[in-house]
Amino acid sequence: MNKLNFLCSAILLAGCGGNQQPVTATAETTTAIAAGLLPNPDSFRDTVDGLTTGLYFLHNGNLTAAITNYGARVVSLIVPDRNGNPTDVVLGYDSIGKYIHQPDTYFGAIVGRYGNRIGQAKFKLNGKEYTLYKNNGPNTLHGGKKGFDAVVWTARKLDTATLRLTYLSKDGEEGYPGNLNVTVIYTLDSNGLRIDYDATTDKPTVLNLTNHSYFNLNGQGSGTINNHLLQLYADHYTPVDSTLIPTGKVEPVAGTPFDFTKPTTIGGRVDDTANQQIKFGKGYDHNFMLLNSIADEPSNLPAAIATGDLSGIVMSVYTDQPGIQFYGGNFMAGTNPLKAGKTDGYRTAFCLETQHFPNSPNEPSFPSTTLKAGEKYVSWTFFKFSTK
Description:
single chain, mainly beta, nine-stranded antiparallel sheet, five-stranded antiparallel sheet, 5 helices, 28 strands, about 35% strand, globular
């Protein structure tokens, strides 16, 4: 039995269930853990805010995912490279304690209520101003002091490839109005990982949910991502001020370092300090307007395609969202201990966060992020994998 088939067999034999039925490691799973292919579920059993945390394994074909209900985070995502070798393409920790106590990185998390930034940590809705927590200079970022990434979700496996997570964000949490019921479903199919979101509120609020996985398609901790190829299906982006809040303008990428309309190496223009936007972001940390969102008719265009230069792993991102935040790992410093003894070195991972635009509650010209009582928020993103 080769390494990949062994891993798949081990996952099928792992236990499943919700928070009330944490995963029990079998002898086969323990061997896979010892081989460095999976994190140990024992290291994810804990109690946070009086609620039980755990690790849940999903399997389909040659793909395997490990997800914790702390922050609804993708801990591992294992896909075969061009030679069939199982490769963990997301950054993460090997214990719940590290997610809690290491400097906040949002590794693999569902972020909200509002993914990305809201300027000056405040917004108006129906004439009332709401004040949020400033955790990113003068702004709020990814939900505030304790966003969805730092709470325990209720988890239940629906089958060997599907995990449902739910969370009630109470009225006033982190300054946001309304009791918000959120459901996130991770589904692993034979080609990739799909994330479905839905939410309802009992009073008007703002909402922008996304997944904050850090990717290295050569394998987490394998070195720079600057030689990855990236294509973004976006010919406009939203420039930012010095605090990374959009100016309200939408500008073309043509003739700038932000032009990824054709496959381009991530690092080719990342240090173009003659470009003010590159200076502000210390590289790439910007929102792109997706062509799918402005097409006259719906199409099957992806949002992005990234390719690992060493592994040949290709990740195509599909979504119904109007924007995608491309972050190139500019603030990573090698200070966090990852799985398998790796560290999160400078620009050794990138993020492609499907989303509505940053600061939309304060920019009437941007797509609205208001969710009204009686309405249902529905969104999806699919990370599809292949090789070349």
